[in-house]
């Protein structure tokens, strides 16, 4: 997949958008940050610094349905958010429709394609452990608090998911 392009996932599915930070339009960036703030700050009542300096080196993926963002994620190269290549800021705005699974599969693919990932780490909210296991991640740390919410580190390995 080329960067900066829009790809239909399936004819009845939402559109996948994948861009580097410089490729994002001002309106796209605003919408992604608005959705992140709505979910992580407002819905989860969590005050934290979302603008962490990692967006500029990351690949941004999002799904739209009828021009509305329904899921998003970012793929960070090694040495930015975490030591290893990582996926973060994973959000679905419409739950129960499979958008989370689609965005995670596309994010894993982007990490492998663009950063040659053989291992991907995430800091997952503890309640979402089962979801991340369903897309190939395995718990790799004890529970820890991050921004007042229980999290665990989870790892995807190419050798386990080949």
General description of the model:
This protein is an alpha+beta fold and 162 residues long. It has a single domain (5-161), classed as Gcn5-related N-acetyltransferase (GNAT) (Aminopeptidase, 3-Layer(aba) Sandwich). It has 4 helices and 9 strands. It has helices at 26-43, 99-115, 129-134, 158-161, and strands at 5-8, 15-20, 59-65, 68-76, 86-92, 119-125, 138-139, 144-146, 149-157. The strands form 2 sheets. A 5-stranded antiparallel beta sheet has the order 1-2-3-4-5, with helices on both faces. A hairpin with a 6-residue loop joins strand 1 and strand 2 (15-20). The protein starts with a strand and ends with a helix. The mean pLDDT is 91.
Class by alpha and beta content? alpha+beta
Domains (count):
1
Radius of gyration: 15 Å
CATH architecture: 3-Layer(aba) Sandwich
Report the CATH topology name.
Aminopeptidase
CA-to-CA gap between the ends? 19 Å
Largest sheet: 5 strands, antiparallel
Spell out the CATH superfamily. Answer: Gcn5-related N-acetyltransferase (GNAT)
Low-confidence stretches: none
In spatial order, strands of the major sheet run: 1-2-3-4-5
CATH class annotation: Alpha Beta
Query: What's the average pLDDT?
Result: 91
In short:
The protein has about 160 residues and is an alpha+beta fold.
């Amino acid at each position: 997949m080329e960067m900066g392009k829009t790809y239909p996932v399936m004819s009845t599915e939402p559109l996948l958008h994948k861009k580097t930070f410089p490729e994002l339009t001002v309106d796209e960036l605003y919408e992604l940050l608005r959705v992140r703030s709505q979910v992580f700050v407002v819905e989860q009542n969590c005050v934290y610094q979302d603008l962490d300096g990692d967006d500029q080196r990351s690949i941004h993926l999002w799904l739209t349905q009828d021009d509305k963002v329904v899921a998003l994620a970012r793929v960070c190269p090694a040495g930015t958010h975490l030591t290893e290549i990582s996926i973060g800021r994973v959000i679905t705005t419409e739950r129960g429709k499979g958008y989370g699974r689609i965005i995670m599969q596309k994010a894993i693919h982007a990490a492998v394609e663009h950063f040659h990932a053989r291992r991907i780490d995430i800091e997952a909210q503890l309640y979402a452990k089962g979801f991340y296991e369903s897309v190939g991640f395995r718990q790799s740390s004890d529970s820890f608090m991050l921004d007042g919410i229980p999290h665990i580190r989870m790892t995807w390995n190419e050798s386990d998911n080949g």
